[in-house]
Amino acid sequence: MAKKLNSMRILEQHKIPYEVFEYPDSIKDAEEVAEVLGVPYFTVFKTLVVQAVDRPDIKNPYLAIIPSEKQLDLKKMAATAGVKKVRMASQKDAERLTGLQVGGISALALLQKQWDVYLDQSATQLQQIIISAGQRGTQLRVPVIPLLRVIRAKIADISTE
Description:
By secondary structure, the protein is of the alpha+beta class. The protein has a single domain (about 5-160), classed as YbaK/aminoacyl-tRNA synthetase-associated domain (YbaK protein, Alpha-Beta Complex). Helices cover about 25% and strands about 30% of the residues. It has helices spanning about 5-15, 30-35, 75-80, 90-100, 145-150, and strands at about 20, 45-50, 60-65, 70, 85-90, 115-120, 130-135, 140-145, 155, 160. The strands form 3 sheets. Strands 5-2-3-6-9 form a 5-stranded mixed sheet. Strands 1-8-7 form a 3-stranded antiparallel sheet. Strand 7 (about 130-135) and strand 8 (about 140-145) form a beta hairpin. It is globular and about 40 Å long. It starts with 5 loop residues before the first helix and ends with a strand.
């Protein structure tokens, strides 16, 4: 049984049901996670740390949550965030900014930071999605609509094949 993480406590506080999945923490790739868990890859979403470029006034990064098999479209992401240009944070920067390991970054675990969160619009076609619990090796299957409310995510077209 997985140890209780803050992300799970938050879901419980909001009375949102969830299912825990565990896998070897050496796996960092979301598509590989889907394969190991035996779930459809399009239900596993990855959380990416994105930074505005040339905007020193914007201190906080953004979180982009997209399906495992897709890539973040930086132009769409920038337009959605209302900035000229964005870039993916390096692994080192993502881990420094979040305090979490890549492969374990979670909007739920970072709720107190109040960063802007963007969820790819494809999630609205699903009842539930699987996201990181905030620790590499632990994923949570959660209902989309209640999750949106808790993490205050904006729905946006931010991914590409």
